[in-house]
Design a protein that fits this description.
By secondary structure, this protein is mainly beta. The chain has one helix and ten strands, in the order αββββββββββ. An eight-stranded antiparallel barrel has the order 1-3-4-5-6-7-9-10. The termini are far apart.
């Protein structure tokens, strides 16, 4: 089974790598629609898909992000989401920032993100990097690493920093 998984991953990587990108996906005046999944702490604001269950407590989140390329390879982005659990009221999540594609394949993002609800409003500064695997000319899968730095008391004032793995699914228009 492991050999089949490795072989499948290798075939996907090679086919994506050989699909040469000319940069038109990340060109000026283009749009980006992004949905992320996150694997890490449940306490960050979530503008993607999430489902976690620990000791009978289940939490879920749903959201998305969009961006506009104001320059070649650089998009301004905004995201919104909603999360809820069986132990508290729902929260609205938001994110604003920028994303730059180095050589059309290596996305690097900086953002401010937060949540509001349950009488708290945590705020984080996020840093993210990854690799864009283009499966078609207009669709990519972007595995990446993310680090969130708490900026206010509700986010721990820097004492509650978040490290996570994300997988983004992107459509370029």
């Amino acid at each position: 089974m492991r050999k089949l998984f490795v072989l499948t991953a290798l075939v996907i990587f090679c086919s994506c790598y050989t699909n040469a990108q000319d940069g038109s996906q990340t060109g000026k005046d283009g749009w980006l629609i992004e949905i992320n999944t996150g694997f890490g702490e449940a306490s960050t604001s979530n503008t993607g898909f999430a489902l976690r269950s620990v000791d009978g407590n289940t939490a879920w989140g749903l959201g998305g992000e969009a961006g506009y390329f104001i320059f070649d390879n650089f998009a301004l982005k905004a995201g919104i989401g909603y999360a809820d659990s069986n132990v508290g009221d729902g929260v609205f999540n938001w994110k604003f920032g920028g994303k730059y594609y180095i050589v059309n394949r290596i996305p690097v993002a900086l953002d401010i993100n937060g949540a509001s609800g349950n009488s708290f409003s945590p705020l984080w500064f996020g840093i993210q990097g990854g690799y864009a695997l283009f499966i078609t000319d207009k669709v990519s899968i972007e595995p990446g690493l993310r680090y969130g730095i708490g900026l206010n008391e509700d986010a721990g004032d820097g004492d509650f920093n978040i490290f996570s793995l994300n997988i983004g699914f992107n459509i370029f228009l």
